[in-house]
Design a protein that fits this description.
Blueprint lengths: L3 H11 L2 H13 L4 E7 L4 E4 L1 H4 L3 E4 L11 E4 L7 E7 L6 H9 L28 E6 L14 E9 L4 H10 L2 E6 L7 H4 L5 E7 L7 H11 L6 E4 L5 H18 L9 H7 L3 E2 L4 H14 L5 H8 L5 H15 L8 H21 L4 H10 L3 H34 L5 H14 L3 H15 L7 H5 L3 H10 L4 E4 L8 H14 L6 E8 L5 H9 L14 E7 L2 H7 L3 E7 L5 H7 L1 H15 L2 E7 L3 H20 L5 E7 L6 H4 L1 H21 L8 H4 L8 E4 L14 H19 L8 H16 L3 H4 L3 H37 L13 H30 L14 H60 L6 H15 L12 H13 L4 H8 L19 E4 L2 E3 L1 H25 L6 H16 L8 H29 L2 H7 L1 H12 L5 H34 L7 H15 L2 H9 L1 H17 L3 H27 L5 H11 L8 H8 L6 H25 L2 H7 L4 H10 L36 E2 L10 H4 L5 E2 L9 E2 L3 H4 L15 H9 L1 H7 L9 H4 ...
Parallel strand pairs: 2-11, 5-7, 5-8, 8-9, 9-10, 13-15, 13-16, 16-17, 17-18
Antiparallel strand pairs: 1-2, 1-6, 3-4, 6-7, 12-14, 14-15, 19-20, 20-21, 22-23
Helix pairs in contact: 4-8, 10-14, 10-15, 12-13, 13-17, 15-16, 16-23, 19-20, 20-30, 21-29, 24-25, 24-30, 25-27, 32-33, 32-34, 32-43, 33-34, 34-35, 34-41, 34-49, 35-42, 36-39, 36-40, 37-40, 38-39, 38-40, 39-40, 43-47, 43-49, 43-50, 43-52, 44-58, 45-46, 46-52, 47-48, 47-50, 55-58
Length: 1457
């Protein structure tokens, strides 16, 4: 068994100065004695533990201050107190330590301050602790009935016999007011006692002891000149209580009468004289002390000192904060132009930074930076000295103010006085955080200097210094509570350096505490995690501080992270106090920030503050609601302090229900404030269970301070809470952040917090990153789906085209039945892929990496988009199948006629051959030709029924009437005013009168706006018509239906412009007129190409050659194989390649990041524009967005495939695939017993029927007059197919990319455009395109908005282009008016009530819109001329934006760094 004193001695001997200091502090708080002189049994040397006790601060109220309720608060080593020492001479039957404990305890409460014989393990022999001198303090509370001593007193206790420890005894005699010597027997000489003169000696003996010698006592008393009052003897009649009372009276007299008062700090000289070491003697500690003293010795008046030595953080920093927030909130913009106002604010900020840079670095800051640059231990000593020195300086002033503040706060009527004290508190506080704050300001100011400036380069190392300190366990100030701001660049750079110092991929979890001021938040964190946040009465923590704790290996496995970040915050204030200094806003900001940063938030509630609790909860609930809206759902624990009853948890179940009820009410109130009207409960907002989410912690003190020890139940309850927290964090589904991600959250949260409307203002690159990843993944799945559908529909169309021919694959003879069967198959395939797509989405959200939980809110949008994609694909596929079936049905009769004619022709040719052979004479070539020509002339007698030409105009008009019939009678009248044949002959011009107002004092011609819409719609429809023409198929009604649907969709997307019915009808007539004209020609061309007589005549020379071959009985095998290959297979293979290439090209383009998501695409287009920096390009992009983007995509495709290698790979793959299919078909046909070549060819064609579209005309012509041998033909066919492959390869190589693109069945340019343009919506104010992923998203957003002048808006008084940007306007008090508002003025801040689908977030960084500012500033004159307006007034700050800054703004806005 070990003696507790041995353990204490061992711990102190094994620890460094900082751990000793922490142990001494904790022991003192628990009212345990602490080592004053520490013995080392190895060296027989002892050490004065001055440094270890440096951090102990005590607060007490002597009797003299009991009336005034004043108190004294001081560092114990600096307090001049009388010290009473207790020692033992020889053996003693009285337990000195036990008597001391009773001496120091009042009658109500006994406490073991000193370890004694009757305690657990107290009787174990001491091995290393003899010679230990312990010290404790008795401090009065000012209550006569409770105080043992009315004045403070230090009590020292030497362990062991003074005969063995003369040095320690001498030290105590030199430093004490009195020394009480406990004895049983005395040596009459007793030189040990007679040599000591400084301290008053008291002899304490036990008469009941058998060794007690009365004579010896008298001799010693006489030698020492002691009176009877200096001798205390415990007699038989005395019990312990009486004896202790006597002792107390004696000590009280000594304390009252003694002039001997000494600070522990003063004891060092005596220690040195006696050869006792002092723990502060180390060189690091002394150098650090010297450096700290050099700084703090200068302080006379704190306020003056701060102004002189720390000038950057005062009024300048507060003014910078005000300007920064005003930039985001625009509360005072009035009638001024927004961008001009913002520009002025930026100029003011620049001036303030210049002012900061004009100051030379003060002596104090130079010394401070030099000192914290010193090696590790010395730096730690320095910061500790600084903290203690500064505390000492400001304590005197602050203690009194804090006490006044607490008193005044009890009565909320003293508002002005409270406000005044609050101001004084802020001005009078001075801690190391002020020096670090100044360091941050020096650094931030230097960043406004050029990079090459020596002053800037000299300060480059500051963030690293601070990061090293963070790693060493020092706190970093996140939020400056006085200015209510974060120096973002400084904190970000410190954290960035910290990231470099930590091992790669280190993860962190964040725990935060929030609660009413002075409810023991810092104490709770210090107890739970062993950290050292400043703890004091009154208002202590200002702002928020973060601290880093390295996680042990065993806990690392549970938490799955390397470090824990603890954030301590300033106490939230009650509403009464909040009204005084607008701090309610500050509290809201602070709560939102720390809740947003944390994985778990501890909400600290002291039960006596339950009235304030409600208001605090409101702030907290607000913060949680905001987090939920931005994709974070932190965990929370409510901690109820000062609840000690064992049945607390049970008794408080009703309170917990009530708390949850209040939380629900507040959630609904907060939801209303944040414009979220749904019926929300607190558990919707965050993970909280009333049963497990509440912890009850007893009060910290066991009795009345200052002599109350710490309640052991407090530590136990906190330990249980800590275990629960670790368990909760361990089960955290979300992955831990790294430091850079934490930094990103901090920046985006703080920027959003600066806005009044947090939810609308929040933009975070981690959320954007997670969203971008989700979009990229979804786009990949979507493309796989589409690609598979393109492939399936291509094969289905081939099957339909081969229906009713020798290549027919299907067994059904009814086209309607085939169509139904194919549609059914299509549904099965679509359902399979839709399920796969939704499955991929579900799996994606199950993963723990990549911050998936941040985009949980978009999950439903993407699921809806997947279902919508299925519907779109189904509609498109059904239309394609129906059109193909209808066209094929129309061809069936034609094919029958052609087949019949070919058959009759074959019979006639055979008859002619028979006739010629009967002549029995050798006929010359000329004679054969004459006979053939005579026969051919007779074929013209065959009945050639002409195909009927349909009136396409009539069909188109029918569909147009159906489309507009719901628009009312006026639309019908308008249609009848003009025939469709007259429409679309001239360019479309909109001629309605009037103007269109959209913004306060800003106008844009209605006519121009509508004409612009018309031009865009006409361009899109023209491209669609062109696609149909290039297919060279017959006209089908689905063509015009598709075009009318496209017009309706685009008009729907431009609802913010008032569209009259006249405009809609005339636009549709114009487009339908153009379409009908083109489709009529398409139809007539189709009839001409498929005319039976023409088709027959085309093959006249082929038939002549075949006639001669049969007549001369020549071997036709090779020739026929070549003919079949050239006329039937080659066109079919070429067609197959072009039908397959489209999806290949799209797939290849999508592997490029530019085409992976809408955001990447937009940023790539804008960066490309910037690289060319040409006005015409910008104008084209702004005014003809779709056209410009389509052309840009085309250029990218051409550029990607211009070298030909990738395209050649695709072509080669499809050619080889076709060759394999042909060879397989030939080999299969060879195995089947076919009677002749005709049936052999039919078998080959049937096998290829679902892959190749073989021309029926060519096949029919090939089949007649064919006497080739089947085996020989098959041999030559395989050879010819090989040659064909080489010929095709050569042909593809020679054909340029643009020619190939025209031949494709699936147009890559259009598909990429449709995919990347998304929903096609544009910002209702500046026309920036929507970038949201999926087609069916709940809200539209654009990363980069433009100055409205680029949308042709001008100020009506001056006709100058407007520079306002909607992302600024939406946070201003300005108003707008448009068709959607019925031309009435509407506040910009409430734009969402007019455009609920749009989310226009303010600039995440104020530089986000630099791109378009740069464009307008550089091409102001040209835009003005193009828009027929006067140039905009360009603000000074815009003129200084460089191309590099414009490029950077794109990367920031689209998060594509």
């Amino acid at each position: 068994m070990l003696n507790p004193l041995d353990i204490i001695t061992a711990l102190f001997l094994c620890s460094d100065g900082f751990v000793r200091q922490e142990m001494a502090l904790k022991m003192s708080v628990c009212q345990f004695s602490v080592p004053l002189l520490l013995p080392n049994c190895d060296t027989k040397q002892c050490t004065l533990m001055l440094w270890a006790m440096r951090d102990i601060v005590k607060k007490y109220r002597p009797q003299s201050l009991s009336e005034s309720k004043g108190f004294i608060e001081d560092r114990i080593v600096l307090s001049e107190l009388p010290m009473i020492s207790f020692v033992r001479l020889g053996e003693c039957s009285l337990s000195k330590s036990e008597i001391l404990n009773k001496l120091l305890s009042n009658t109500q409460q006994y406490h073991d301050t000193f370890v004694h014989h009757d305690m657990e393990c107290g009787d174990s022999p001491r091995r290393i602790s003899n010679g230990l001198v312990e010290i404790t303090w008795y401090l009065p509370c000012g209550n006569k009935n409770m105080d043992v001593f009315s004045e403070p007193v230090a009590v020292a206790n030497l362990r062991g016999d003074i005969a063995s420890f003369e040095t320690q005894f001498s030290f105590l005699c030199e430093t004490s007011a009195a020394v009480f010597v406990f004895f049983d027997t005395l040596d009459s000489e007793c030189e040990l006692l007679t040599n000591q003169h400084k301290a008053q000696i008291f002899l304490v003996g036990n008469r009941q002891s058998e060794h007690f010698g009365k004579d010896a006592l008298k001799k010693v008393a006489t030698k020492l000149g002691l009176t009877t009052s200096n001798i205390l003897l415990k007699t038989k009649q005395m019990n312990d209580a009486d004896f202790v009372q006597t002792l107390q009276k004696t000590v009280s007299k000594v304390v009252e009468n003694s002039k001997m008062r000494m600070r522990i700090e003063q004891m060092t000289d005596i220690a040195h004289e006696l050869g006792i070491w002092v723990d502060e003697d180390s060189s690091e500690c002394q150098t650090a002390k010297k450096n700290a003293d050099a700084i703090t010795a200068e302080i006379q008046d704190i306020l003056e000192y701060k102004e002189a030595q720390l000038p950057l953080q005062g009024l300048i920093w507060k003014e910078l904060t005000r300007l920064e927030k005003e930039e985001f909130r625009l509360r005072n913009v009035g009638s001024e132009k927004i961008e001009e106002y913002k520009s002025d604010l930026q100029i003011e900020k620049t001036k303030l930074r210049e002012k900061q840079n004009s100051y030379d670095m003060s002596n104090a800051m130079t010394c401070f930076i030099t000192a914290i640059s010193s090696p590790g231990t010395e730096r730690c000593y320095f910061l500790k000295w600084m903290r203690m020195n500064l505390d000492n300086v400001s304590r005197e002033k602050l203690s009194d103010l804090k006490e006044q503040y607490k008193e005044k706060c009890k009565n909320s009527e003293n508002k002005e006085e409270i406000k005044d004290i609050d101001r004084q508190l802020s001005n009078s506080s001075l801690g190391t955080e002020h020096f670090f704050r100044e360091m941050g300001q020096i650094y931030e100011a230097s960043l406004s200097l050029p990079e090459t400036d020596p002053s800037r380069q000299q300060l480059h190392h500051l963030p690293k210094l601070c990061a090293e300190l963070l790693l060493d366990g020092f706190p970093l100030e996140l939020v400056d509570g006085e200015a209510s701001n974060i120096p973002l660049r400084w904190v970000s750079d410190v954290l960035s350096q910290l990231n470099d110092l930590m091992s790669p991929k280190s993860k962190i979890l964040v725990v935060t505490v929030l609660g009413v001021q002075s409810t023991g938040k810092s104490t709770l964190l210090n107890t739970m995690f062993g950290v050292q946040f400043a703890v004091s009465s009154g208002r202590c923590t200002r702002g928020a501080f973060m601290l880093l704790i390295r996680i042990n290996e065993d806990v690392k496995k549970v938490l799955n992270c390397d470090f824990m970040v603890i954030i301590d915050t300033e106490g939230l204030k009650s509403p009464e106090l909040a009204q005084l200094d607008n701090s309610h806003e500050h509290d809201n900001e602070l709560a939102t920030l720390v809740v947003g940063l944390s994985d778990l938030t501890i909400i600290n509630i002291a039960m006596e503050n339950s009235t304030e609790m409600k208001d605090i909860l409101q702030i907290v609930v607000h913060a949680f609601l905001r987090m939920k809206e931005v994709g974070k759902k932190p965990k929370c624990q409510f901690v109820h302090q000062n609840v000690s009853d064992v049945s607390a948890h049970e008794n408080n179940s009703r309170d917990r229900k009530l708390l949850l009820q209040q939380l629900d009410e507040m959630t609904q109130a907060a939801a209303k404030m944040e414009k979220k009207e749904e019926n929300m409960s607190f558990t919707d907002v965050m993970e909280y269970s009333p049963v497990t989410g509440n912890w009850y912690i007893p009060g910290l003190w066991n009795g009345n301070p200052p002599m109350a020890p710490v309640n052991a139940g407090y530590s136990e309850a906190v330990y249980e809470l800590k275990k629960n927290i670790i368990q909760m964090l361990g089960s955290c589904g979300s992955s831990a952040h790294d430091i850079l991600e934490f930094t990103e959250w901090m920046k985006s949260l703080w920027n959003a917090v600066k806005h009044e409307n947090f939810i609308f203002s929040f933009r975070n690159s981690l959320v954007a990153d997670a969203y971008m990843r989700l979009c990229t993944e979804f786009n990949t799945w979507e493309w796989d789906f589409k690609k598979e559908m393109y492939k399936w529909v291509t094969n289905a169309e081939t099957e339909i085209n081969n229906f009713g021919t020798v290549a027919q694959k299907s067994e059904t003879s009814d086209m309607r039945q085939l169509l139904t069967q194919l549609k059914s198959e299509a549904c099965t395939v679509l359902t399979k892929w839709e399920t796969k797509l939704l499955g991929n989405l579900a799996e994606y959200f199950k993963q723990t990496e990549g911050h998936v939980y941040l985009v949980e809110g978009y999950r439903e949008d993407f699921a809806t988009s997947a279902k919508s994609l299925r519907r779109e694909m189904e509609s498109s596929m059904f239309n394609q199948l129906t059109a193909a079936a209808d066209i094929r049905r129309g061809m069936t009769e034609l094919d029958r006629i052609k087949e019949n004619h070919t058959k009759q022709l074959e019979e006639r040719v055979c008859a002619l051959i028979e006739k010629c052979r009967k002549k029995k004479v050798q006929m010359t070539e000329k004679e054969l030709d004459e006979e053939f020509d005579k026969m051919w002339t007779q074929t013209e007698e065959l009945s050639f029924s002409e195909m009927k030409v349909e009136d396409i105009y009539n069909n188109v008009l029918h569909h147009l009437i159906t489309n507009v019939k719901d628009k009312g009678g006026h639309a019908w009248e308008l249609l009848n005013q003009k025939s469709l044949q007259e429409c679309g002959l001239d360019p479309f011009k909109y001629t309605a009168e009037g103007f269109f107002t959209r913004l306060t004092n800003k106008i844009i011609g209605h006519q121009k706006a509508v004409q612009q819409i018309a031009d865009k719609i006409i361009a899109s429809c023209t491209q669609c018509i062109l696609g149909k023409i290039q297919s060279k198929n017959n006209y089908h009604d689905t063509y015009i239906q598709e075009i009318l649907h496209m017009i309706d969709e685009k008009l729907q997307n431009n609802q913010d412009v008032k569209i009259e019915i006249e405009f809609e009808v005339s636009l549709k007539q114009h487009i339908c007129g153009v379409a009908a004209r083109q489709f009529q020609k398409l139809h007539e061309d189709f009839i001409h190409v498929n005319d039976p007589y023409r088709c027959l005549n085309q093959n006249k020379e082929k038939f002549r050659t075949d006639f001669k071959d049969v007549f001369h009985e020549r071997d036709q095998c090779q020739k026929k194989a070549e003919e079949f290959t050239d006329r039937c297979l080659r066109p079919a293979v070429e067609d197959f390649v072009y039908r397959s290439l489209g999806p290949d090209i799209i797939g290849e383009m999508k592997t490029n990041q530019k085409f992976s998501t809408r955001m990447f695409f937009q940023s790539s287009v804008l960066l490309d524009l910037l690289s060319k920096d040409d006005f015409k390009n910008y104008q084209s992009y702004i005014c003809s967005y779709e056209e410009y983007v389509k052309n840009w995509i085309l250029k990218q495709i051409v550029e990607r495939f211009s070298d030909g290698s990738t395209m050649f790979e695709f072509e080669e793959r499809h050619v080889q695939s076709s060759i394999r299919s042909i060879n397989d078909a030939v080999n299969k046909a060879k195995t089947e017993k076919s009677g002749n070549l005709k049936s052999f060819i039919q078998n080959v064609c049937q096998e290829l029927g679902d892959k190749l579209n073989i021309s029926q005309d060519a096949l029919g012509a090939f089949m007649i007059l064919n006497n080739a041998d089947q085996q020989q033909f098959a041999h030559w066919l395989i050879e010819c197919v090989k040659d064909m492959a080489q010929d095709l390869q050569e042909k593809f190589k020679e054909t340029n990319i643009l020619m190939k693109l025209k031949e494709l069945n699936v147009n890559p340019q259009n598909v990429l455009f449709t995919d990347l343009i998304g929903c096609g919506k544009q910002c209702p104010f500046c026309e920036a395109p929507c970038e949201a992923g999926g087609k069916e998203h709940g809200e539209h957003f654009a990363s980069l908005h433009r100055p409205e002048g680029l949308g042709r808006y001008r100020w009506d008084e001056t006709q100058k282009l407007s520079t306002d940007i909607c992302s600024s306007s939406v946070i201003s008090d300005q108003r707008f008016g448009c068709t959607a508002t019925n031309d009435e003025w509407h506040p910009y801040k409430e734009y969402a009530t007019i455009y609920p689908d749009w989310r226009i977030a303010p600039d995440a960084s104020l530089q986000a819109s630099d791109y378009w500012k740069y464009v307008l500033a550089n091409f102001n004159q040209q835009f003005a001329e193009a828009f027929n307006a006067k140039p905009a007034d360009i603000h000074a700050t815009w003129k200084h934006i460089t191309r590099k800054q414009a490029e950077e703004s794109i990367k920031v806005s689209f998060n594509t760094k």
